[in-house]
Design the sequence.
C-alpha cells in the first residue's frame, strides 16, 4: 500500500473511533486479496468486541457460518491487530479488544444494528452459562442486560445480594465495573436502569465510599419511582438514607428511612406470610433507630431496635438455619447493647454483646471464608472486651484474650483481601482496646 492509499483509508474513517479501528484492518491487510479477506477480519473484529475477551471457542460461537469454521485462523489474524492484546487472566490464547475500541465498536453496532447486538449478546451469554467462576457469571450477566434486560435486572440484584452476604468483595467490585460500563452505554429507564444504579451505588457505598454521592443514590430512587415498584422504591430509600447518614445529614437520612419503613409496613401487612417482607420491616426499624441514636434520642432508638429484634427473633424461630436472619439477630443484640451502655446499664449491655458474639461464632464456624462474618466476629470480640473493661468487676484477662482474638481475625483478613472501610474501623477500635487493656 502506498502512502496516498493509506491516507485515503484514514480519511474515509472521518475520525470515528469505530471506523478508525476497522480501517486498521484495511491497513494491515493491504497486501492481501482486496475485499473478501478484509471483510472476514473486519466482521471477526466487530464480533470479538461484543464480549470483554475472546478465544477461538468464543469467536466460533459468535460468528455465523461459514465464518465460524475459520474461527481459529481469524483469531490468529485478530491477535496481530494493534487494537488487540493478550488477556492471559482468562486462559491461554485469550485476548481482548482494547477497551476504548471495544466500546466504540459496540456503540456503533448498538446504533446501527441493535438486533445484531441483541443476537450476539444472547450467544455470548450462552458461552458462559454454567460457569460458576465470578468473572464468568459477571460476563454472562453483562450480556443478559443487552439480550434480556428485565430478567438481567433481577438476576443482578440476586447476584449482588449473594456475594454481599458471602463477603465476596473482589467479585462485587468486578460487578461494579461492568454495571458502570452498562450505565454509560445506556440501559432502559425504570426497573432496569434503576436496578443497575442501585446495585452499583450499594457496591460503591460499602467498598468505594468516596465514589458514591447522594445525587447518585437519588438517581436510582427516581428510576425506581418510574417503575412504580414499591418494594424497589423502599430499597432505594434505604440506600439514600445510608448515604445521607454517612455524610452526616441526619434529618434527611431519617426522612428517607421513615419513607422506606412506611412502604415496607404496608407491604408486610398486605402479605403477612411473606418472610422477606417481614425481614425488610425489621431492617427499616433498625435504620430508623440508627439515626435516632446518632441524634441522641436513646429511648426512641431503643424502641426501634427492640422492634427490629422482635421480628428477627420470630423469623429465626421459624427457620434457625437461615444464616442471614441469624446475622440480623446478632446486629439487633449489638445495637441494643450500645443503647444500654449509653444509658449506664453496663451489665445489660454486656449480656446483649455476649448474645451477639455467640451468634457470630456460630456463623463463622459454618462459613470460615465469609469475610463479612469474620469481621463481625472481630467486632463482637471488641464490644464484649470494651464492656468488660468498663465494668468495675469486669474480667480484664478475658478482655485481653478477646482483643487478641479479634486482631488475629483482622490480620488474616488483611492478608486475604484489600481492607474495606468497615474492616479498618474494626481494626482501629481493637488496637485502641489493646492499649486500654494493657
Sequence:
Amino acid at each position: 500500500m502506498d502512502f496516498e492509499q493509506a491516507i485515503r483509508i484514514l480519511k474515509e474513517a472521518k475520525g470515528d473511533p469505530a471506523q478508525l479501528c476497522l480501517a486498521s484492518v484495511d491497513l494491515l491487510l493491504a497486501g492481501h486479496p482486496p475485499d473478501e479477506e478484509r471483510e472476514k477480519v473486519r466482521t471477526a473484529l466487530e464480533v470479538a468486541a461484543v464480549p470483554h475477551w475472546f478465544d477461538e471457542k468464543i469467536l466460533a460461537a459468535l460468528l455465523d457460518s461459514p465464518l465460524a469454521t475459520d474461527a481459529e485462523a481469524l483469531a490468529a489474524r485478530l491477535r496481530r491487530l494493534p487494537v488487540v492484546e493478550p488477556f492471559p487472566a482468562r486462559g491461554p490464547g485469550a485476548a481482548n479488544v482494547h477497551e476504548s475500541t471495544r466500546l466504540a465498536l459496540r456503540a456503533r453496532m448498538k446504533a446501527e444494528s441493535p438486533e445484531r447486538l441483541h443476537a450476539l449478546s444472547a450467544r455470548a451469554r450462552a458461552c458462559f452459562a454454567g460457569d460458576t467462576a465470578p468473572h464468568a457469571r459477571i460476563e454472562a450477566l453483562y450480556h443478559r442486560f443487552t439480550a434480556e434486560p428485565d430478567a438481567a435486572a433481577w438476576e443482578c440484584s440476586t447476584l449482588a445480594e449473594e456475594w454481599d452476604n458471602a463477603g465476596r468483595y473482589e467479585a462485587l467490585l468486578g460487578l461494579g465495573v461492568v454495571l458502570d460500563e452498562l450505565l454509560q452505554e445506556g440501559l432502559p429507564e425504570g426497573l432496569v436502569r434503576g436496578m443497575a444504579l442501585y446495585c452499583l451505588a450499594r457496591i460503591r457505598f460499602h467498598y468505594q465510599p468516596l465514589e458514591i454521592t447522594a445525587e447518585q443514590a437519588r438517581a436510582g430512587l427516581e428510576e425506581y419511582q418510574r417503575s412504580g415498584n414499591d418494594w424497589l422504591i423502599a430499597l432505594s430509600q434505604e440506600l439514600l438514607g445510608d448515604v445521607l447518614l454517612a455524610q452526616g445529614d441526619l434529618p434527611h437520612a431519617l426522612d428517607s428511612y421513615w419513607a422506606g419503613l412506611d412502604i415496607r409496613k404496608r407491604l408486610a401487612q398486605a402479605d403477612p406470610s411473606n418472610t422477606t417482607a417481614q425481614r425488610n420491616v425489621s431492617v427499616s426499624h433498625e435504620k430508623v433507630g440508627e439515626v435516632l441514636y446518632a441524634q441522641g434520642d436513646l429511648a426512641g432508638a431503643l424502641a426501634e431496635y427492640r422492634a427490629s429484634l422482635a421480628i428477627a427473633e420470630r423469623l429465626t424461630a421459624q427457620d434457625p438455619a437461615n444464616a442471614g436472619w441469624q446475622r440480623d439477630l446478632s446486629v439487633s443484640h449489638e445495637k441494643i447493647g450500645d443503647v444500654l451502655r449509653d444509658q449506664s446499664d453496663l451489665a445489660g449491655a454486656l449480656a446483649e454483646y455476649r448474645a451477639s458474639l455467640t451468634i457470630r461464632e456460630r456463623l463463622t464456624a459454618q462459613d470460615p471464608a465469609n469475610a463479612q462474618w469474620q469481621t463481625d466476629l472481630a467486632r463482637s470480640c471488641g464490644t464484649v472486651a470494651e464492656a468488660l473493661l468498663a465494668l468495675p468487676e469486669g474480667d480484664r484477662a478475658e478482655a485481653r484474650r478477646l482483643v487478641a482474638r479479634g486482631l488475629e481475625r483482622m490480620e488474616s483478613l488483611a492478608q486475604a483481601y484489600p481492607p474495606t472501610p468497615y474492616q479498618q474501623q474494626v481494626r482501629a477500635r481493637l488496637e485502641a482496646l489493646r492499649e486500654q487493656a494493657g
